């Protein structure tokens, strides 16, 4: 409905500042997460079966074939969705697309740099998957949350295999990807630098909390793994600290605890 207002929105969607400002109050916090563009390319190639879209056949490593010459696949990698009048490219700058940068403007790097700089001022935090522990501890501080709000179940569940999941690109392939998906690399580098700038402003106490968080995460993960198999068991009590009030980890908490996997 046009006049509806919202308290929270948590899902995959394309960032639209104008629409969001019309639905949420001015003090709304904006949070996202991104990952290294090459790791994201591998995930995209698998999840969206882009090898079929790109007509890469008879090769177990579609990423390697694609990165030999990404430009030759350009006409196939772009997809137009007429019902929303949007062009999407799953191989070229897909993360920046999700942050509101049009796929058709992939070559406008200087304009994209200005846009990403504005994003840095609009978002409370853009987390980095490769530094997930640091990201969630910083998130807790910025949002004034409790430890129990950020604990992640660290037993990896995203174990879906695919042939090139652990493939390490050659320097030449990475250079091709940086050229092809240059705006995503701008995005990643900007927010990776932003993350560490914010962490450095926290002081040494941040690393004390980070170490504590990692210990508690492993304790809770081990406990949830044990009672999860039995679907019963005595709750574990997490003692109070300077970063959390006392709380219990029971089967209900474990069932709701987010999991982390790459």
TrEMBL record:
GO terms for biological process: glycolipid biosynthetic process. Its main location: Golgi. One of its GO terms (cellular component) is Golgi membrane. Keywords: Glycoprotein, Golgi apparatus, Membrane, Signal-anchor, Transferase, Transmembrane, Transmembrane helix. GO terms for molecular function: galactosylceramide sulfotransferase activity; sulfotransferase activity. It is a single-pass type II membrane protein. The keyword Plastid does not apply. It is found in: Golgi apparatus membrane. Belongs to the galactose-3-O-sulfotransferase family. This is Galactose-3-O-sulfotransferase 2-like. It comes from Branchiostoma floridae. The lineage of its organism: Eukaryota, Metazoa, Chordata, Cephalochordata, Leptocardii.
């Amino acid at each position: 409905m046009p006049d509806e207002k919202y308290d929270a929105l948590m899902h995959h969607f394309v960032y639209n500042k104008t629409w969001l400002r019309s639905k949420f109050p001015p003090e709304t916090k904006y949070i996202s997460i991104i990952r290294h563009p090459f790791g994201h390319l591998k995930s995209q190639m698998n999840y969206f079966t882009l090898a079929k879209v790109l007509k890469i056949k008879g090769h177990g490593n579609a990423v390697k074939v694609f990165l030999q010459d990404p430009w030759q696949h350009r006409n196939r990698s772009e997809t137009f969705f007429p019902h929303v009048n949007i062009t999407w490219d799953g191989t070229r700058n897909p993360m920046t697309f999700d942050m509101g940068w049009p796929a058709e403007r992939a070559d406008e790097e200087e304009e994209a740099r200005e846009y990403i700089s504005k994003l840095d001022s609009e978002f409370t935090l853009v987390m980095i998957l490769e530094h997930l522990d640091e990201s969630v501890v910083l998130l807790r501080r910025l949002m004034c949350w409790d430890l129990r709000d950020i604990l992640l179940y660290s037993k990896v569940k995203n174990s879906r295999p695919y042939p090139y999941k652990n493939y390490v690109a050659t320097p030449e392939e990475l250079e091709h990807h940086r050229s092809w998906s240059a705006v995503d690399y701008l995005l990643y580098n900007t927010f990776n630098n932003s993350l560490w700038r914010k962490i450095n402003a926290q002081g040494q106490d941040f690393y004390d909390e980070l170490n504590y968080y990692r210990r508690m995460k492993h304790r809770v993960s081990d406990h949830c793994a044990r009672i999860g198999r039995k679907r019963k068991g005595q709750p574990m009590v997490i003692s109070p600290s300077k970063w959390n009030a006392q709380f219990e980890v029971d089967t209900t908490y474990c069932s709701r605890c987010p999991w982390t996997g790459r």
